[in-house]
Structure formats: structure tokens, C-alpha cells
Amino acid sequence: MKTIDKIVGRRGLASLMLFLPLMAMAQDTAEAAAPASNETVAELATGVNTVWMLLAAMLVFIMQPGFALVEAGFTRTKNTANILMKNLVDFMFGSLLFWFIGFGLMFGVGKFVGVPHFIDLDMMSSIIDNGLPIEGFLIFQTVFCATSATIVSGAMAERTKFSMYLVYTVAISVLIYPISGHWTWGGGWLCNGDPDSFMMRTFGYAFHDFAGSTVVHSVGGWIALVGAAILGPRVGKYGKDGKSRAIPGHNLTIAALGVFILWFGWFGFNPGSQLAAATSGDQTAISHVFLTTNLAACAGGFCALVVSWMRYGKPSLSLTLNGILAGLVGITAGCDLVSPLGSVCIGAICGVIMIFSVEILDHKFHIDDPVGASSVHGVCGFLGTVLTGCFAVEGGLFYGGGFGFLGAEIFGAAIVGCWAALMGYIIFKVLDKVHGLRVPARVEEEGLDIYEHGESAYNN
Q: What is this structure's pTM?
């Protein structure tokens, strides 16, 4: 028995002596593989984030045909081709111009405005260090710029020269949007959270606009309001007694389809602004933004339905559609900061205020906005940003945060709004004096499709 134990012990010892070098080799291999494994994980995370950002950009791009359908449905048959052409031009011109100069102005180095690098993406990549491919980040920001430009189209529909539309699309894409965007998203003074910055010294908070209630929507909305005011109302919109006359759109079916498409695209617009999806924190944030975005849209549409029913005797489809958009615009600034209940409150408030804004601009100020873009995007964009200062779970007025964050939101939204309105006024006034913004009365009465484009959207 002892002999067997000795034999086994010797064999075990011999096996151990043979196995030790193998263990050492395995350890060395594991240590060598560790950095490679970490690099693989980092690459996978970057890949997930990049795919999410590009998917979100695709969803935001889908909003472009959504806007086209809403505007076409809310206007008359004879101007449909003109509406569709303008929405195509917004994206084509906007993409080229933002790539060439706007991207550098918005995200380049500078306090008031970034230094343009004129299509030098390598230079921009050295400035923007967010761990994402610069080409992908450019296209993501491009679709936002195009959204801001296309908002103006609907408010000035049915009476604007197509050539003049091209000119002010250039101005929005290379001047107005990139400069205010630099202040808010490009490292400029409104979003500067350094302790000695103006915003921190004044309010104790930097301006916050997660996905663009102010940066995108109110910029387009205030330019649209100024443009519609300078352009004047459509022929026949107001009688000799000054009373407003309804000019119904030709197809609420395609307008409703456009709103559904916009609603769908907004799930890229807001959640996509997280720009990351690889970690559990990112996934929670994205899911939260999805929820608040959807709840605000539903609350805005429902409240617009109820108020229109009470005010006008019947539930209005067109106002309900704009109520959905008002809720979406309003929640865009604070979709990451507010609770689900807060998002419902913001959507409901924006849906109601939108109706009164449309009525006041039309009946009191005689500003003819065929699609309600000024109210939906301008008024509700501003309002949603301000309400973020009230409903934000951390720092919001209703959550014990005081007036600091609310003050920062009011100030930022007002500054950007004034910038957009002032620049819009200057550009439209100059264009109107130099070449004229408006088509002749005969062209307006017979339709822009034939006179401006030589073809019609409907030929039977």
C-alpha cells in the first residue's frame, strides 16, 4: 500500500512539474490577451454608438418627407409641387452648405462663433472628441440643420418666389442656425458650464436644450413668423372688414400621414441626441427619452382635441395634428430631465397654448401662417424650453431647485429667439427690397406649380 502511494505521489509530482510550465505559458497568454480584449470591447462599444447615431440620423431624415406631407396637405392643390420642391431643396442645399461651412461655424473653436474649416473634416475631428466618426457626427448634425430650414417653408407657403426661398435657405444653413447652434451645442457661451463663465456666474446653470426645442425648432419658428409677417397674407385671407377667412388645405389625409411620419422620426430626433447606446446608463437614458417624447405627443394631441371641441363646437383634426407636433416640440428640450408626469404636463400645456397662439396670430395680428409653423415651432419651442426649467427633476422650479435653472432657460431661449428673429427680419427685408419676396397676384391666384416649376402635382 505504501509502495502504491509512493508511486502515485511520484507520478503526481512529475505531472505537476510538467504542468507548471504550461500554467506559466497560459498566464502569459492571458496577460497578453487582456489588452487586446479591452480594445475589442472598446471597439464594440464605439460600433454600437456609431450605429445608433446613424440610425437616429436616418429617423430624423424621415422627418423631411413628413414636413413635406404636412405642408402639402395643409395648403391648396395648385401649390403642391412647389411645397415638395422646397422641402427637397432644404435638404439638398442644407447638406452641401452645412458640410462646406456651417459645421465649422457651429462646432469650431471660438466664443461667439466657431472658426470655419471649409470641408476639412480631419481638422474638425481633432476639435470634436466624442469618440464617434466625424463623418457620422456631421451627417447627424446635418439632418438637424435641414429640419430648422424646412420649418420656414410652411409659414411662407403659397406666395413666395422660389428663387428667394433658395436665398434664405442658404442664410439659415450657413449663418443663422450654425451661429446660435455654436452658442448652445458647439461649446459656446450659453452652454459653458465653467465656474467663471457668464451663465454660471449669473444663473448658476448653463443653458440646457437636449435635442433642440430652441436650437432647432424655435429658430425655424421665429424666422417663419417674421417671414410670414413681412410677406403679408395670401390673397383672400382677410375680408374688407378685416375678418379672417379660412383657406382649407386640400388633403388632410396626407397631412395626417405626415404627422405620423414626423412622430416616428422624433424617436430619432430626441433619443438619438444621447449619441450613445453601449452602456446600461445609455440604454436607460434612451428608453426614458423615448417614453417622455411619446407621452408629450399624446398629451399635446389629446388636449388640442378637447380644447378645439370646446372652443369651436367640433373636434378639429387639423388642430389635433398640430397639437401632437406642439407636444413633440415642447418636450424636445427637457426630454432627458423631466419625469413621465412632467412630460405629460409639458405636452398638454403646449397643445393648448398652440391653439390660442394660432388664433391670436391670425385674428389679432393678421399674420397668415398656412400650417401654423410659427405657433407649433416658435411659440411651443420657446415654451417647452422654459417649462424644462420648471419640470426638471433636478434643478427645476417645481422640484425645489429655485429660479436659477429656470432663469438660464428663459434667458437662453430668449437670446436665441431674438437672434433668429432679428436675422430673419434683416434678410427678408433686404430680399424684399432688392428683388421682392412675393410672386405677382396672378401667379398666386392660379398657383405656383405651373408658373414657378412648369408642372403640377396633380394632372387630372
A: 0.91
φ, ψ (nearest 5 deg) of residue 333: -70, -40
Q: Which residues of 189-209 are buried (b: 16+ CB within 10 A; e: fewer)?
A: bbbbeeeeeebbeebbbbbbb
Closest alpha carbon to 355 in 380, 332, 330, 391: 380
Does residue 392 have a pLDDT over 60?
A: yes
Dmax over CA atoms of the chain, in Å, equals 123
d(CA 460, CA 362): 33
Q: With 90 as the cut, is the pLDDT of residue 92 above it?
A: yes
Cα–Cα separations (whole angstroms), residue 238 to 44, 209, 225, 247, 355:
60, 38, 18, 10, 19
Is 17 part of any domain? no
Q: How far apart are CA 433 and CA 424, in angstroms?
A: 14
> What is the domain count for the chain?
1
Number of residues that this document lists for the chain = 460
Helices 177-184 and 404-434 meet at what angle, rounded to 10?
Answer: 170
Taking the C-alpha atoms of residue 217 and residue 330, their distance in angstroms, rounded to an integer, is 9
Q: Which three cell numbers stand for residue 24?
A: 506559466
How high is the mean pLDDT of the chain?
92
What does the alpha-carbon distance between residue 109 and residue 128 come to, in Å, rounded to a whole number? Answer: 10
pLDDT at 138 over 90: yes
Supply the CATH number for residue 286's domain.
Answer: 1.10.3430.10
Q: Which of 216, 211, 224, 166 is nearest to 372 (CA)?
A: 224
* pLDDT number for residue 119: 85
Q: What are phi and psi of 439, to 5 degrees?
A: -75, 160
Find out whether 370 and 247 touch, Cβ atoms under 8 Å: yes
Determine the structural domain holding residue 134 and report its residue range. 36-453
**12 found inside a domain:** no
Q: Give the type of residue at 16.
A: L
As given in the structure block, the three cell numbers for residue 376 are 407649433
pLDDT at 129: 85
